[in-house]
Amino acid sequence: MRHVRGMLAALALCAGLAAHAGEPAISGGVFHVTPVRPVAQLLPLALAATPPVESGDFRPADLVELTALDPTIRLDIRYATSNNFLGTPVYSQARAFLQRPAAEALVRVQRSLAREGYGVLVHDGYRPWYVTRIFWDAMPPELHKYVADPAEGSRHNRGCAVDLTLYDLRSGRAVEMPSVYDEPTERAWPTYAGGTSEQRRMRDLLRHHMEAEGFSVYEFEWWHFDYRDWKAYRIGNVRFEDLGAGH
Length: 247
Ligand SMILES: [Zn+2]
Fold this sequence. Notes:
Strand order of the largest sheet: 4-6-7-9-8
Helix content: 10-25%
Bound molecules: zinc ion
Structural class: alpha+beta
Strand content: 15-25%
Radius of gyration: 17 Å
Number of domains: 1
Low-confidence stretches: 4-13, 15-22
C-alpha cells in the first residue's frame, strides 16, 4: 500500500499512511479493510490481467530467494497469512525474493548486524504485479488512495524493495519498534520522536546498517527500504510458485 501524505503520494509502497477521521478501523496499530469481493474471486481476474507496458532499457530480472542466499535471514511474510490489512492470505507461499544485487547487499547487512547481536526479519520483498492488482481490486473505491495503482505498479513489483525488522539472535524474537508493521500512523515514520529510547535505537540501528549497503528508508515507514538500483528493473509478474529456490 502507499502513503497518501506528502509529495510521494504517486509512489506505491507498502500498507502505510496517515490516519484520518472516518477512515477504516485501526486496532493495535493494524489497519483493517473488508475486501469488496473475496480474494479467492479476485485472484483469477488478477492473474489474467496484464501489467503496464514499460518502454526503455531495463536489466533482466534475476530474483534470488533470500533464505537460499543466507539461511539466517528470517521470514514473517504477513501477506501469506491472515495477519495483514485484508485479513486473508494473498500470497500462496511464504517466501521472499529480491533482485540479486539487492539480495547480496541484504546478506552483507545481515552479517554486519550479527556482530551486534541482531538479524533481519523480512516481511516482504519482491511482490508480483498481480498481487498489487488484488490489493487495488479488494479495496473499496474510496480507499484506493491507500494502495498502489496497478497502472503504475509498486516499487515492490520491481524486486528492489524490502520490508523488514530486526530479531535478537539470542532470543530469536523480533525486537520492539516504535510502531508495528504496516501501521498507518506517525509512529511509523522513521523520524518519529516518540516511543521508548530502546525502540528508537532499534529502528535507527536497522536504518544505519541498511543505508551502509545502499538501501534508503521510505520517509513514512521505518520498515520499507529501496535498493539504489530499483529503477533499473521492470515491473515483474512472476508468481512465487514459478520461482525456484536459489533462482
Ligand atoms: Zn514496503
